[in-house]
Specification:
The protein has 562 residues and is α+β, with helices and mostly antiparallel strands. 60% of the residues lie in helices and 8% in strands.
């Protein structure tokens, strides 16, 4: 295995020295030695640093010391810790809990730097875009800061400006993180167990998405289109003429943050209506749209006139596919009906568990997790906590839990908390019921079944179409590599005939299944003409499928092979 190297620029070497010093400062000197990083600092400085911080090492746990080190190392490492705090499947639970304390405390940069960066990105003077631009930012974080402004055309906007030079710093830090991850895998006994290189790769993808403000703008447009016609939710407009990968300009909306209960009461808002609107807005996202706002910071939800909820900041969103949406609907209905056997079945049906997982043990542990909820009233059941606990259990079994599902559990916990702070009597599960029922009805509708059957047949057709090309590729590969294949098995001809028979029977079975599905759809439609009170075409389809199935069963029995 080649020795991992970091790009040897002056900036990277200096930064690596800084990282090494901070690690030693917070009691990770032995780790520095194990990773052979000691040559990046002088011996005298190492000895002084070791002695100076030996007492601090004893005063804090390892997770605490690593969190302090991340805070000192700045934005990239703070972001890494914040992302890891939501991934207990990647790191131990005590580290994940400690990283939740990481704060994005970064001083703002000057307004002149903001304007200069805007002008470089948009290639136009700020005076030609804005009639006013507030120099004091309303918020500042490690990635960007926000200024209030007014466009020359009169629209009130906020301008999100990325920190100048941030990409260069992040790229340098990511390069160093990859270097450290490789060293951990190379030199630490159990280094590969936590897949540090994979963690850095996922972090790299996540942070680069967050750095692309065009993507955030596109997310906002998707949500605006999804909530079109909904009077309870408002999504700000994106001004694309003044938006780039580093600059985001969007409509400025005014409102009271959803968690400021006293201000809402003083302004005369109806907290119960707000709680219901907020819960329904989130449930629509996960049970109707398949894309949800995954950064439920209370400051991202502003209460406007008529109890309308304005949603901002679409830098982090989660996505769920149709199968998971259906499973979530069944999960909510199972909790409402207190049908925990069905709930267990749903989690196993999701297919998150690998083949080598002991499904029986998982089911027993899941039963132990759910049992305490028996007999409790719905108001005592927190859907978000149950989801998160189940995902954690699945991760303990090394299950493949997608990051979006973990985000969903965390987000649902926050949304439930915000809703109950506004209205202690709200029942999230009851609010979820109509959305869940509607989703299940849609999945059972003839139109959806026809579409699903068409997709299945289309997929099968694509597979059949690809077979000749794949065989041609294999043959060319054999010819190119001059491989010689000898048929030495005396019963090979018979094997080929048997395989041919099996494939024919499988194809015949698929045809029968397609006839049954199509007939079922026709039966549900209730279309005339009728036979014995049922659609004639559907009845004929069932009869044909039955006869073909009987013929197939007889042929299998006659062959003597079941």
């Amino acid at each position: 295995m080649p020795f991992p190297k970091v790009k040897k620029t002056y900036q990277n070497i200096q930064r690596l020295r800084n990282v090494t010093n901070v690690l030693i400062k917070h009691g990770f000197g032995s780790l520095v030695d194990q990773l052979n990083l000691q040559h990046y600092i002088s011996l005298g400085k190492r000895i002084i640093t070791f002695k100076k911080y030996e007492l601090e090492k004893e005063a804090h746990t390892i997770p605490e010391r690593l969190r302090l080190a991340f805070e000192e190392l700045g934005p990239t490492f703070i972001k890494l810790g914040q992302i890891l705090s939501s991934r207990p499947d990647l790191i131990p639970q005590d580290f994940a809990e400690e990283f939740k304390k990481l704060q994005d405390k970064v001083p703002p940069f000057s307004a002149s730097e903001s304007k200069k960066h805007i002008e470089e990105e948009l290639n136009v003077k700020t005076d030609e875009i804005f009639s006013s631009f507030e120099e004091t930012p309303t918020a500042a974080a490690s990635i960007a800061q926000v200024h209030n402004a007014t466009l020359i055309t009169g629209e009130r906007v906020i301008v999100k400006v990325q920190r100048p030079g941030l990409r260069r710093i992040l790229e340098s830090d990511i390069s160093i993180l990859f270097y450290l991850a490789n060293l951990i895998e190379r030199y630490l006994p159990h280094g590969k167990l936590y897949n540090p290189t994979g963690i850095v790769e996922e972090f790299s993808r996540t942070i680069r998405r967050e750095l692309n403000f065009n993507l955030e703008g596109s997310n906002a447009v998707k949500f605006k289109n999804n909530f079109e016609g909904d009077d309870t939710v408002y999504i700000p407009k994106i001004y694309w003429d003044y938006t780039t990968k580093d600059i985001l300009t969007l409509e400025r909306i005014e409102g009271i943050p959803i968690h400021e209960i006293k201000k809402l009461e003083e302004a005369g808002y109806d907290k119960k209506i707000i709680a219901k609107n907020g819960a329904n807005a989130f449930l629509r996202q996960i049970l109707e749209f398949g894309i949800f706002h995954a950064d439920p910071h209370p400051g991202n939800f502003l209460i406007m006139e008529n109890n309308k909820i304005g949603i901002v900041d679409f830098g982090i969103v989660g996505k769920i596919d149709d199968d998971i949406m259906e499973s979530l609907a069944n999960t909510f209905l199972s909790l409402i009906e207190l049908d925990y056997d069905k709930l267990i079945h749903e989690y196993i049906r999701l297919g998150l568990l690998t083949e080598d997982v002991d499904t029986k043990a998982f089911k027993n542990d899941l039963q132990d997790l759910i049992d305490p909820y028996y007999g409790k009233a719905l108001r005592q059941i927190q859907a978000g906590k149950i989801l998160s606990d189940v995902f954690q259990l699945a991760m303990n079994y090394k299950a493949r839990v997608p990051n979006d599902l973990i985000l969903l559990g965390k987000t649902l916990i926050t949304i439930e908390g915000l809703a109950r702070a506004l209205d202690p009597d709200i029942l999230i599960l009851e609010e979820a019921k109509p959305f869940s029922v509607e989703l299940i009805k849609k999945r059972l509708s003839p139109a959806y079944q026809i579409t699903k059957a068409y997709r299945t047949i289309s997929d099968l057709g694509d597979i059949v179409k690809d077979i000749p090309g794949q065989l041609s590729y294999v043959l060319k590969k054999v010819m190119k590599d001059k491989l010689k294949i000898e048929f030495v098995h005396s019963g090979l001809d018979r094997l080929i005939r048997d395989m041919d028979k099996s494939s024919n029977r499988l194809s015949f079975s698929l045809i029968i299944s397609a006839i049954v599905i199509g007939s079922s759809v026709v039966m549900l439609s209730g279309k005339e003409p009728l036979l014995f009170g049922f659609p004639m075409l559907g009845v004929i389809g069932y009869i044909v499928a039955g006869l073909l199935g009987l013929w197939l069963a007889i042929s299998i029995l006659r062959s003597g092979r079941l």
